[in-house]
Amino acid sequence: MTLPLMPKATAVWLIENTSLTFDQIAAFCGMHSLEVKGIADGEVAIGIAGINPITGEQVSKEEIARCEENPKATLLLSAHARKHIKITSKKKKTSHYTPIARRQDKPDAVAWFVRYHPGVTDQQIVKIIGTTKTTINSVKLRSHWNMTNIKPRDPVLLGLCSQTELESLLEKVKVSADDQPSNEQHNS
């Protein structure tokens, strides 16, 4: 069920302005009935101003009146509100920030992937350590401006990715390598 915008503020308004039960308000606002009781007692949501869900077109006066008459009825969000409120539970992944002091370590991590895990694609390296394809190509072709000082080092130890991320990537690479037929099977 989709919840109203600002559920605590909506709960505060419903407690102050309607005769709905705590259970009805809790179900509508996605809260526990004890939390709603705490709001009514002044122990929870102190200082939160109530927001009228009727003026926000989240629920109609008729729907509130229907539920006030029948304590077992469930207060429903209006069709208009359900259409316009989209709640996403998946967090957007933000770009990976690498401190300036760590940026010089990226070519070392690229060299580590090139030497120890050649099956990892350039795009996967870009994604996991936040480097560029230009840097990867310059390390692979040994044309990087600082090539004499680049040493293959584990990106986890350099702090460029987590061990979990690295293991997940290497597992994907292993699975994709297992799925591809070997040359021996083609020659038979």
Any chance you could write out the topology, listing elements then pairs?
Blueprint: H1 7-17, H2 22-29, H3 33-41, H4 61-69, H5 79-84, H6 100-103, H7 106-116, H8 122-129, H9 133-140, H10 163-179, H11 183-187
Written account of the structure:
With 188 residues, the chain is mainly α. It has 2 domains: 7-84, no CATH class; 100-178, no CATH class. The protein has helices spanning 7-17, 22-29, 33-41, 61-69, 79-84, 100-103, 106-116, 122-129, 133-140, 163-179, 183-187. The longest helix has 17 residues, at 163-179. The model has no long low-confidence stretch (mean pLDDT 84).
Summarize, please.
This protein has 188 residues and is mainly alpha-helical. The protein is built from eleven helices and no strands. α1 packs antiparallel against α2, α2 crosses α3 and α7 crosses α9.
Alpha-carbon Rg, integer? 28 Å
Q: For the terminal residues, how far apart are their CA atoms?
A: 58 Å
Write down how many β-strands occur, each being a DSSP E stretch of 2 or more residues. Answer: 0
Give the helix proportion (percent range).
Answer: 40-55%
